[in-house]
Design a protein that fits this description.
With 310 residues, this protein is an all-alpha fold. The protein is built from 14 helices and 2 strands.
Protein backbone atom coordinates (compact mmCIF):
# COMPACT_ATOMS: atom_id res chain seq x y z
CA UNK A 1 0.00 0.00 0.00
CA UNK A 2 2.80 2.45 0.89
CA UNK A 3 4.56 1.56 -2.37
CA UNK A 4 1.42 2.11 -4.43
CA UNK A 5 0.57 5.41 -2.72
CA UNK A 6 4.16 6.60 -3.18
CA UNK A 7 3.93 5.78 -6.87
CA UNK A 8 0.66 7.72 -7.17
CA UNK A 9 2.21 10.72 -5.46
CA UNK A 10 5.27 10.51 -7.70
CA UNK A 11 3.05 10.64 -10.79
CA UNK A 12 1.03 13.53 -9.34
CA UNK A 13 4.23 15.42 -8.49
CA UNK A 14 6.46 14.49 -11.40
CA UNK A 15 7.52 18.11 -11.70
CA UNK A 16 9.59 17.49 -8.56
CA UNK A 17 11.61 14.89 -10.47
CA UNK A 18 12.73 17.55 -12.94
CA UNK A 19 13.35 20.14 -10.21
CA UNK A 20 15.45 17.74 -8.16
CA UNK A 21 17.33 16.60 -11.27
CA UNK A 22 18.17 20.19 -12.16
CA UNK A 23 19.29 20.81 -8.57
CA UNK A 24 21.58 17.76 -8.65
CA UNK A 25 23.07 18.88 -11.98
CA UNK A 26 23.73 22.34 -10.53
CA UNK A 27 25.19 20.76 -7.38
CA UNK A 28 27.61 18.70 -9.45
CA UNK A 29 28.43 21.81 -11.48
CA UNK A 30 29.40 23.56 -8.23
CA UNK A 31 31.55 20.62 -7.14
CA UNK A 32 33.27 20.39 -10.53
CA UNK A 33 33.83 24.15 -10.64
CA UNK A 34 35.47 24.02 -7.21
CA UNK A 35 37.74 21.21 -8.44
CA UNK A 36 38.90 23.23 -11.45
CA UNK A 37 42.09 24.59 -9.76
CA UNK A 38 43.43 21.03 -9.95
CA UNK A 39 41.97 20.20 -13.37
CA UNK A 40 45.30 19.38 -14.98
CA UNK A 41 46.32 16.93 -12.26
CA UNK A 42 42.89 15.29 -12.08
CA UNK A 43 42.43 14.92 -15.85
CA UNK A 44 45.90 13.42 -16.34
CA UNK A 45 45.36 10.83 -13.60
CA UNK A 46 41.86 9.93 -14.84
CA UNK A 47 43.06 9.40 -18.42
CA UNK A 48 46.00 7.28 -17.26
CA UNK A 49 43.80 5.10 -15.03
CA UNK A 50 41.09 4.80 -17.68
CA UNK A 51 43.61 3.46 -20.18
CA UNK A 52 45.44 1.33 -17.62
CA UNK A 53 42.32 -0.51 -16.46
CA UNK A 54 40.51 -0.38 -19.82
CA UNK A 55 37.27 0.80 -18.27
CA UNK A 56 35.54 1.67 -21.54
CA UNK A 57 33.92 -1.79 -21.63
CA UNK A 58 31.81 -0.84 -18.58
CA UNK A 59 29.75 1.46 -20.78
CA UNK A 60 29.54 -0.77 -23.84
CA UNK A 61 27.16 -3.43 -22.45
CA UNK A 62 25.24 -4.52 -19.43
CA UNK A 63 26.92 -6.40 -16.62
CA UNK A 64 26.00 -10.02 -16.80
CA UNK A 65 28.14 -8.73 -18.74
CA UNK A 66 29.40 -9.43 -22.19
CA UNK A 67 32.74 -8.83 -23.88
CA UNK A 68 34.19 -11.84 -22.03
CA UNK A 69 34.29 -9.96 -18.71
CA UNK A 70 32.67 -11.37 -15.57
CA UNK A 71 30.94 -9.33 -12.90
CA UNK A 72 33.79 -10.06 -10.49
CA UNK A 73 36.40 -8.83 -12.96
CA UNK A 74 34.40 -5.67 -13.63
CA UNK A 75 34.06 -5.01 -9.89
CA UNK A 76 37.78 -5.59 -9.35
CA UNK A 77 38.65 -3.14 -12.14
CA UNK A 78 36.31 -0.41 -10.84
CA UNK A 79 37.48 -0.69 -7.23
CA UNK A 80 41.11 -0.89 -8.31
CA UNK A 81 40.69 2.22 -10.45
CA UNK A 82 39.06 4.15 -7.59
CA UNK A 83 41.76 3.25 -5.07
CA UNK A 84 44.48 4.02 -7.61
CA UNK A 85 42.93 7.42 -8.33
CA UNK A 86 42.88 8.37 -4.64
CA UNK A 87 46.42 7.12 -4.14
CA UNK A 88 47.85 9.00 -7.11
CA UNK A 89 46.04 12.22 -6.23
CA UNK A 90 47.62 12.21 -2.76
CA UNK A 91 51.02 11.27 -4.17
CA UNK A 92 50.85 14.10 -6.72
CA UNK A 93 49.59 16.72 -4.25
CA UNK A 94 48.54 16.02 -0.66
CA UNK A 95 46.72 19.35 -0.41
CA UNK A 96 44.81 18.61 -3.61
CA UNK A 97 43.85 15.18 -2.26
CA UNK A 98 42.43 16.58 0.98
CA UNK A 99 40.64 19.36 -0.89
CA UNK A 100 39.06 16.94 -3.37
CA UNK A 101 37.90 14.58 -0.61
CA UNK A 102 36.20 17.51 1.11
CA UNK A 103 34.35 18.75 -1.96
CA UNK A 104 33.63 15.41 -3.63
CA UNK A 105 32.49 13.60 -0.50
CA UNK A 106 31.51 16.13 2.17
CA UNK A 107 30.18 19.04 0.07
CA UNK A 108 28.45 16.81 -2.49
CA UNK A 109 26.79 14.82 0.30
CA UNK A 110 25.76 18.01 2.09
CA UNK A 111 24.12 19.42 -1.04
CA UNK A 112 22.40 16.11 -1.83
CA UNK A 113 20.86 15.81 1.64
CA UNK A 114 19.70 19.42 1.55
CA UNK A 115 17.93 18.58 -1.71
CA UNK A 116 16.33 15.59 0.00
CA UNK A 117 14.97 17.76 2.82
CA UNK A 118 13.60 20.37 0.39
CA UNK A 119 11.86 17.68 -1.68
CA UNK A 120 10.26 16.22 1.47
CA UNK A 121 9.10 19.73 2.44
CA UNK A 122 7.46 20.26 -0.96
CA UNK A 123 5.82 16.82 -0.83
CA UNK A 124 4.51 17.66 2.65
CA UNK A 125 2.81 20.76 1.24
CA UNK A 126 1.10 18.69 -1.43
CA UNK A 127 0.09 15.84 0.88
CA UNK A 128 -1.25 18.14 3.62
CA UNK A 129 -2.95 20.89 1.62
CA UNK A 130 -2.80 19.88 -2.06
CA UNK A 131 -0.51 22.85 -2.72
CA UNK A 132 2.69 23.07 -4.71
CA UNK A 133 5.68 25.23 -3.83
CA UNK A 134 8.72 26.32 -5.79
CA UNK A 135 11.98 24.48 -5.22
CA UNK A 136 14.03 27.68 -4.89
CA UNK A 137 11.64 29.32 -2.45
CA UNK A 138 11.43 26.20 -0.30
CA UNK A 139 15.22 25.78 -0.44
CA UNK A 140 15.84 29.30 0.88
CA UNK A 141 13.02 29.15 3.44
CA UNK A 142 14.23 25.89 5.00
CA UNK A 143 17.99 26.53 5.09
CA UNK A 144 17.93 26.76 8.90
CA UNK A 145 16.64 23.17 9.01
CA UNK A 146 18.03 21.54 5.88
CA UNK A 147 21.64 22.50 6.64
CA UNK A 148 21.84 20.88 10.13
CA UNK A 149 19.88 17.91 8.79
CA UNK A 150 22.36 17.48 5.94
CA UNK A 151 25.32 17.73 8.30
CA UNK A 152 23.96 15.10 10.68
CA UNK A 153 22.97 12.82 7.80
CA UNK A 154 26.54 13.01 6.50
CA UNK A 155 27.87 11.78 9.85
CA UNK A 156 25.17 9.11 10.09
CA UNK A 157 25.92 7.81 6.58
CA UNK A 158 29.67 7.41 7.19
CA UNK A 159 29.59 3.91 8.77
CA UNK A 160 27.09 2.59 6.22
CA UNK A 161 29.14 3.89 3.31
CA UNK A 162 32.28 2.38 4.86
CA UNK A 163 30.53 -0.99 5.18
CA UNK A 164 29.37 -0.89 1.55
CA UNK A 165 32.83 0.01 0.27
CA UNK A 166 34.43 -2.62 2.51
CA UNK A 167 31.95 -5.28 1.40
CA UNK A 168 32.49 -4.55 -2.29
CA UNK A 169 36.24 -4.51 -1.79
CA UNK A 170 36.05 -7.91 -0.09
CA UNK A 171 34.02 -9.29 -2.99
CA UNK A 172 36.59 -8.00 -5.47
CA UNK A 173 39.25 -10.13 -3.75
CA UNK A 174 37.36 -13.39 -4.34
CA UNK A 175 38.70 -15.57 -7.15
CA UNK A 176 37.94 -18.94 -8.67
CA UNK A 177 34.90 -20.67 -10.10
CA UNK A 178 32.82 -20.29 -6.94
CA UNK A 179 33.49 -16.54 -6.91
CA UNK A 180 32.13 -16.21 -10.46
CA UNK A 181 28.84 -17.62 -9.15
CA UNK A 182 28.43 -15.82 -5.83
CA UNK A 183 29.90 -12.39 -6.69
CA UNK A 184 27.06 -11.38 -9.07
CA UNK A 185 24.56 -12.33 -6.34
CA UNK A 186 26.27 -10.59 -3.44
CA UNK A 187 27.18 -7.50 -5.45
CA UNK A 188 23.42 -6.89 -5.54
CA UNK A 189 22.40 -8.24 -2.14
CA UNK A 190 25.03 -6.56 0.06
CA UNK A 191 24.53 -2.94 -1.13
CA UNK A 192 20.74 -3.41 -1.31
CA UNK A 193 20.66 -4.82 2.22
CA UNK A 194 22.80 -2.03 3.69
CA UNK A 195 20.92 0.70 1.82
CA UNK A 196 17.61 -0.76 3.05
CA UNK A 197 18.86 -0.89 6.66
CA UNK A 198 20.03 2.72 6.40
CA UNK A 199 16.71 3.76 4.88
CA UNK A 200 14.85 2.10 7.76
CA UNK A 201 16.85 4.17 10.27
CA UNK A 202 16.53 7.53 8.48
CA UNK A 203 13.16 7.32 6.70
CA UNK A 204 11.33 9.24 9.43
CA UNK A 205 14.05 11.78 10.22
CA UNK A 206 13.31 14.56 7.71
CA UNK A 207 9.50 14.00 7.84
CA UNK A 208 9.55 14.36 11.64
CA UNK A 209 11.46 17.66 11.40
CA UNK A 210 8.93 18.94 8.87
CA UNK A 211 5.67 17.69 10.37
CA UNK A 212 6.49 18.39 14.03
CA UNK A 213 8.59 21.51 13.30
CA UNK A 214 11.39 20.36 15.61
CA UNK A 215 15.18 20.38 15.42
CA UNK A 216 17.35 17.65 13.96
CA UNK A 217 18.11 16.01 17.33
CA UNK A 218 14.52 15.81 18.58
CA UNK A 219 13.31 14.66 15.16
CA UNK A 220 15.43 11.51 15.01
CA UNK A 221 13.72 9.59 17.88
CA UNK A 222 10.32 10.85 16.72
CA UNK A 223 11.06 9.57 13.23
CA UNK A 224 12.25 6.23 14.62
CA UNK A 225 9.01 5.80 16.56
CA UNK A 226 7.06 6.31 13.35
CA UNK A 227 9.23 3.87 11.39
CA UNK A 228 9.03 1.16 14.04
CA UNK A 229 5.24 1.05 13.71
CA UNK A 230 5.77 -0.18 10.14
CA UNK A 231 9.40 -1.25 10.40
CA UNK A 232 9.23 -4.53 8.51
CA UNK A 233 7.24 -3.03 5.64
CA UNK A 234 9.61 -0.06 5.41
CA UNK A 235 12.66 -2.33 5.30
CA UNK A 236 11.20 -4.85 2.85
CA UNK A 237 9.91 -2.16 0.48
CA UNK A 238 13.25 -0.32 0.50
CA UNK A 239 15.08 -3.62 -0.03
CA UNK A 240 12.97 -4.49 -3.06
CA UNK A 241 13.42 -0.98 -4.51
CA UNK A 242 17.22 -1.16 -4.25
CA UNK A 243 17.34 -4.75 -5.54
CA UNK A 244 15.37 -3.77 -8.65
CA UNK A 245 17.55 -0.69 -9.19
CA UNK A 246 20.80 -2.68 -9.03
CA UNK A 247 19.42 -5.49 -11.19
CA UNK A 248 18.37 -3.05 -13.90
CA UNK A 249 21.71 -1.25 -13.80
CA UNK A 250 23.65 -4.50 -14.11
CA UNK A 251 21.40 -6.08 -16.72
CA UNK A 252 20.90 -3.08 -18.99
CA UNK A 253 24.17 -1.26 -18.35
CA UNK A 254 25.43 1.78 -16.52
CA UNK A 255 23.77 4.12 -19.00
CA UNK A 256 20.41 3.06 -17.53
CA UNK A 257 21.31 4.93 -14.33
CA UNK A 258 20.81 8.18 -16.24
CA UNK A 259 17.09 7.33 -16.28
CA UNK A 260 16.79 5.27 -13.09
CA UNK A 261 18.47 7.56 -10.54
CA UNK A 262 16.51 10.78 -11.32
CA UNK A 263 13.31 8.81 -10.62
CA UNK A 264 14.64 6.69 -7.75
CA UNK A 265 15.69 9.59 -5.49
CA UNK A 266 12.38 11.52 -5.44
CA UNK A 267 10.48 8.23 -5.18
CA UNK A 268 12.43 7.31 -2.03
CA UNK A 269 11.81 10.77 -0.55
CA UNK A 270 8.08 10.53 -1.29
CA UNK A 271 8.04 7.03 0.21
CA UNK A 272 9.50 8.49 3.44
CA UNK A 273 6.67 11.00 3.68
CA UNK A 274 3.97 8.41 2.89
CA UNK A 275 5.39 6.10 5.55
CA UNK A 276 5.39 8.87 8.13
CA UNK A 277 1.87 10.11 7.37
CA UNK A 278 0.53 6.54 7.36
CA UNK A 279 2.21 5.55 10.63
CA UNK A 280 0.87 8.71 12.31
CA UNK A 281 -2.66 8.11 11.01
CA UNK A 282 -2.62 11.46 9.17
CA UNK A 283 -4.89 12.06 6.17
CA UNK A 284 -3.16 13.10 2.96
CA UNK A 285 -3.72 13.78 -0.72
CA UNK A 286 -2.46 11.10 -3.10
CA UNK A 287 -3.65 13.16 -6.05
CA UNK A 288 -5.69 16.31 -6.52
CA UNK A 289 -9.00 14.39 -6.29
CA UNK A 290 -8.24 11.75 -3.67
CA UNK A 291 -7.65 12.05 0.07
CA UNK A 292 -6.42 8.91 1.80
CA UNK A 293 -7.40 8.25 5.42
CA UNK A 294 -4.99 5.76 7.07
CA UNK A 295 -5.79 3.92 10.27
CA UNK A 296 -5.69 6.16 13.30
CA UNK A 297 -2.54 6.18 15.40
CA UNK A 298 -4.08 4.11 18.19
CA UNK A 299 -5.06 1.45 15.65
CA UNK A 300 -1.53 0.92 14.38
CA UNK A 301 0.29 1.19 17.73
CA UNK A 302 0.97 -1.80 19.92
CA UNK A 303 -1.01 -2.39 23.10
CA UNK A 304 2.09 -1.61 25.19
CA UNK A 305 2.45 1.78 23.52
CA UNK A 306 -1.26 2.60 23.45
CA UNK A 307 -1.34 3.40 27.17
CA UNK A 308 0.82 6.47 26.50
CA UNK A 309 -1.90 7.96 24.29
CA UNK A 310 -4.09 8.69 27.34
Amino acid sequence: MMFRNSLKLLCANFDKVWKLLLYKILSWAVVIALAMPFYSTISTIIVDIWNEFGLEYLFSSGTFYGLGVSVGEALTDVIGACFTFVQRIFVANVGAGIYLVLILYFLRSLLANMGRFVTCEMVYGYMATNSKHSFTGTYLRTLNKSLPYAGMRFLFDLPFNALIIGGLYGLSLLTGQLASIIVPIFIILIPALLFAIKETFVAGWAPAMIVFDCNVFRAFPKGQMAVLRRGLRVFSTAFVIYILTLLLAMAIGLYSLVIILPILFPFIYIFDMVMFFSSQGMRFYVDSDTILTPKRLEEVDTIDNAKFLL
